Amino acid sequence: MKKLVCFFLLCCFVSPLFSQQIAVKPLKPKAGEKVLIEYELGKGPLADAPEIDIIVYEYADKNIEVKSLNLRAVDGKLVGEFQLAPTALAAFFVFSHDETIDNNAGQGYFIDVYDAAGNLLPENKATRALLIRTVGPNLEVSVPADKLMGMFEETFKAKPAARASYLSAYVSTLMRVKRGDAGKQEGIALLDELVAAPDATEKDLSNAIRTYELYRETEKANNLKTLVKQKFPKGLLVQQERRTAISAMTDFEAREKAIAEYLSQYPPQSDVDRSAVNNLYTAVAEYYADKKQWDKYQEIAARLSPASRASLHNNVSWELAEKNEDLGWAEMFGREAAILAQTEMYAPSESKPTMLTPMQWARQRRITFAQNADTYAFALGKVNKWQEAAKYQQQVVEITEAGNAEMNERYIEYLSKAQSALLRPELERLLALGKATPKLREQFKALYAAEDKSEKGVAAYLAQLDASAKVLRRQELAAKMTNTPAPVFALKNLKGEEVKLENLKGKVVVIDFWATWCGPCKASFPGMQLAQEHFKNDPNVVFLFVDTWERVATEEKAKIAGEFIESKKYPFNVLMDLDDKVVMSYGVSGIPTKFIVDGQGKIRFKSVGYAGSPEALMEELSEMIELAKP
To answer: From CA 259, how far away is CA 281, in angstroms rounded?
Structure first.
């Protein structure tokens, strides 16, 4: 498969962390009351956004509900209103436009809920911690796990009866903070308490099973599974085990019959149930695709929901086209995938996922269409239908905002082979946006020289385009700058030398969290090497590569990290986060994640993931570093 990826004046408000551009009224909202959120336009990271979404996550009845508010402009402010649920305990919100988020400098904005007497609900701290753990990573909001654990404990102290409702989340947090036998024994004791609670739900008990398994308490996990199946004979665990048994069947005709029997016993009641059935049928369809039994493949595919069928066809089309096999089928399945995804983009057949706002969901569907259109264009190119391929790829580049290097290169390839008049202007546009790869730069040079008969003029013209790209890139990055204190640390590098962040005051420090098992981390290293080489003569720029989350015994971590670095001859200063405490303190939810820390010890930028272009990574990091300098 091709797509590769390795979260008013507030001096009188309850949270002193709010900026002057945010207002929440009333000051002490109660459950069931209407809440007004005001956002002053023209300030903050979304100052130039054409539209802004207020995303609210409300916690009530042990569930998180996401809401996207209807907004109106009033006196230079954006105003949104919603009603707290009658059992609401707290709400969390951020402002967003596409990829840009105003999240209160990584802290998030909270709406605390009060009782009738105007007192803060005792569940407040635990609910905040739960919201941060659950939705924070997707919104670049993070708080160190030890602080989250303290927030849970504040609630437990204020209201012991609330303890049972948060035990599962608390144990999960505990596992990140207290490692070793002492932490294990404490965690198991808490799980035993949760299991014994008379009002424990199947969801609570299922979470306990998974955590017992993580602690390698196999007997406790198995005993609890037996209890859950007895207590909930048609519950989620029973259904899951039945689906697992079906997925293990090697006779696919028998598997089809087993799926039909499963459906007769457990008719889907929710989107989650329907998704599980789609997964069962998808595996059967993939089997027939591998056997190239296309009639049977299509028969099974027809049983899937439109979105799942689009995903299946997209993957099959790409694999066939990549292998240059059955290209007629590749084109047909690619076309159907693109049509289905386009229909879903405008008229979705499934309900909105509960954790997405309407704007986020709409964007997700647009991106899905772009991925499917990219596959269809790829299949069209394989059969030399260049003009049609370029038409679809143009939509891909537009939707992705030219953010994917491979997709951009394919677009230019299709235009070139179609001999399109758009070839040169589109190359120029990508260069001016800073989205052109070295390959596209060379192609533009050749095209310019051939059309304008001037090899000398191309250098000057490229310099103009590069200058435009640099201005745009700086504007985009400047809007994303943060100003939060970087957690200090002291770690030993592969040479056994201790490196302290506080000793690097006055310098810009690039901290790259990575692991040897992380594909995107390793793929980004050539770009990181380019960036380090670019600043090799600047004594005020330091690169630190923090190896973390390794999946081997502690005593083996430095060995495997050192062997990898040595095998690639990377000139990196690798620090070992052996107990994963530093990555935890930075609130990292996925790697690779890079932080740019300025000379005052403040985090100015955070970058998650890798987009696939070493040169683009080097340029982006260079701009971040320059912006972080005094």
So the answer is: 8
